[in-house]
Amino acid sequence: MPRPSESLVYGVQAALAVARHRPDAIHRVLYVEARRRDVGPLLKAAAARKRPYREVPPDELERVAKSVHHEGVVVVADPLPLLPLEALIERARGPEGLLVALDGIGNPHNLGAILRSAAYFGAQGVIFPKEPRQASLSAAAVRVAQGGAEVLACVGVEELSTALGELGAAGFRVVGAEPEAKRGAFDQPLPRPLCLVFGNEAEGLSPAVRLACKERVRIPGTGAVQSLNVSVAAGVLLAAASASRRTR
Fold first, then answer.
1. d(CA 8, CA 136)
2. pTM of the complete model
3. What is the pLDDT of residue 248?
């Protein structure tokens, strides 16, 4: 079982990403025989740092992971670090700056899918509020992120609307995703540096966050259903932002 200063990472791609990006964070590794070859780079990283690794039966791995979705490997590691907002602003400032802000995304699988898309399309970081309705960087979210959580800078803030105000003051265009917005996401290129803001799955953008978004965009569709899943919407808008950069 992990200690309070440790966290679990499970899933093959998530575990391998720890070995690539944070090998010194590894404490120990558990895996099933069928995954020995798949997680070879992870075992090499652990061995090089004299960290223990052990082959275990599937039922023991399930007890440790507290999940059947462990994919045959669990890494006990340092928790993912959170970057200060000021450091993220410095990292992302400039013509290629692309950030994602999450306003109470409660489902860890949605969070993980957004992290995966953000990493795929070249975002520098993700900002989220430290509040109960926001999913944390749990093992489930990190597994779904497929390594994205290891390459993105993650920032937890007390008040998301305040953080968005700081981004605006630093020159970022803060754009909220909203189904009722007048502007379509593909009407004109999305500007950079850019922060895309996504609201809660059920309630959308909260009032304070909505006010902090100087612009809002919608993803045009047929209207056959009311809206997209938030992680799908994030992927669409991140793709649009990436296409806008290439066009410029």
1. 13
2. 0.94
3. 52
